[in-house]
Amino acid sequence: MPQSITLSRLSTLLLAFAAATPGWAAVTAEEAAKLKSELTPLGAERAASKDGAIPAWTSGYTTVSASYKAGTPRPDPFAADKPVYSITAATMAQHADKLSDGQQALLKKYPSYRIDVYPTRRTAAAPEWVYDNTLKNATRAKTANNGDTVVGAYGGIPFPIPKSGKEAMWNHLLRWAGEAALFEGSTWSSSGGRVALAATIRSEINYPYYYKDGTPQKFAGEYWYNYQVTLEPSFKAGETILVRDPVDQVGMNRQAWQYLVGQRRVRKAPNLAYDTPDPTTSGNAFMDEVTLFLGAMDRFEFKIVGKKELLIPYNLNSFIQKKPQDVVGGNHLNPDPMRWELHRVWVVEAELAPGKRHAVPKRRYYLDEDTWAVSLYDGWDAQGQLWRTGLALPFLAPEIPAVISANFVTMDLLKGSYQAAIVNGNAAQWEARAPYPETNFTPESVAARGVR
After folding, report:
1. What is the rounded distance in angstroms from the CA atom of residue 290 to the CA atom of residue 301?
2. How many CA atoms lie within 13 A of 113 on its CB side?
3. Which residue in 207, 212, 214, 203 sits closest to 247, CA to CA?
4. For residue range 144-190, what is the model confidence (pLDDT) as tens digits?
5. Nearest-angstrom CA–CA distance, 321 and 391
6. Which of 60, 63, 72, 405 lies 20 to 30 Å from 121, alpha-carbon distance?
7. Alpha-carbon distance 433 to 196, whole Å?
8. CA gap 191, 223 in Å, rounded
9. How far apart are CA 334 and CA 354, in angstroms?
10. For the chain, how long is the longest CA-to-CA vector?
């Protein structure tokens, strides 16, 4: 099977999509110029909030500690910070306007749940070439296929001044996290107050959309490659998932393969998407809840509700230094090592599109304005009950530089269960790498590298 669609065929398809299907146009040069004045290079508001609780953005945090080496926990540059205040169920009403529905539900449900609020640190940063590409994208990037295809974007945030919900969600999918990375994480599942290790995985990740020496003309259309191998528990060791995601979610679609050690063969896995249970979470999260949202958007209609100031987890370098047993709890994460900050977020709502189905028919996403990563997520069932809530656990990686949202938690409010995908206790928590060879991300490679 060919590794990817050819450049000529991709260009023909995208031009046809852009001409024949509804989408949104790029912004004007005058609007784009705001990225050099009132907006940050990635599209956030530079200015502080009116009360100063959210400071002005002043280029982010890019100072690399002399003590940091790959394979060791990243230092916390803000370890001396103390909480400004804490929120419990008793004080929640005073801060309700700064809390998502999911966080309010957790405070009501669990007396042990608490939100410790620290000074806001706007640490998000990216290399200058990413800023340059983002500025170019502002006037050249467009969507087609009802927003499910991106045309003309490369190497930066595609829509730094979004005009639609899908543009904002594409910013999340195409957010900056480096050119490639080695990532090790463990998923812990809790049910009935008991916590157990579901899986530890090792991922080799390429972001072809962010190859520094690439161009829009060279880009072959797939923005994310993930070669993921299960390390433990022992009976799952060697299980492999390969995923390749495109910027054309209609014409190219996700390509996925799975290697199961019991079968000793690689098979196509088209169902590893949407509301299929994620095999690494013991079924406690859906595939499109990975990092709170991942994959195609065609089953929903997305709209931007607006922006607001919201408390979200941020700069969790101290958190990821802890042992897993010190951060996971019976019913929720241990609130002691958590760090919450006040940030501006984009609020995007998703309603099930006509004729489509999904286990979670209504969703709300809160996207951090500085990174475009989904920070919090709430989901409602078909009866209108708040069913699911999730939070990203971003940490600062100044050597890239980037704020990484690889850690995340999803919670089932009705069952009282949760899963936490965290890097704690692993050596390669998130190591920036040069891009892996393209041949690593093929079904042939999965078969050749399979164990047992």
Report:
1. 19
2. 16
3. 207
4. 999 999 999 999 999 999 999 999 999 999 999 999 999 999 999 99
5. 19
6. 72
7. 31
8. 35
9. 40
10. 61
Question: Rounded to an integer, what distance in angstroms lies between the CA atom of residue 443 and that of residue 241?
Answer: 10
> Where are the extended beta strands (E) located within 314-433?
340-352, 362-368, 374-380, 386-392, 395-397, 402-404, 408-412, 417-422, 431-432
Residue count of the chain: 452
Contact yes or no for 256/250 (Cβ under 8 A): no
Angle at 344 between CA 341 and CA 349, to 5 degrees: 115
- The token duo for 257 is 């393969």
Alpha carbon of residue 284 to chain centroid: 18
Contact 181, 413 (CB under 8 A): no
Quote the CA–CA distance of 231 and 344 in Å, as a whole number: 38
What are the residues facing 256 on neighbouring strands? 243
Cβ distance 174 to 153 under 8 Å?
A: yes
Record the tokens describing residue 83, joined without a space: 């909480």
The pair of three-digit structure tokens given for residue 18, joined into one six-digit string: 């852009």
pLDDT digits (tens, 9 = 90+) for 416-435: 999 999 999 998 999 999 99
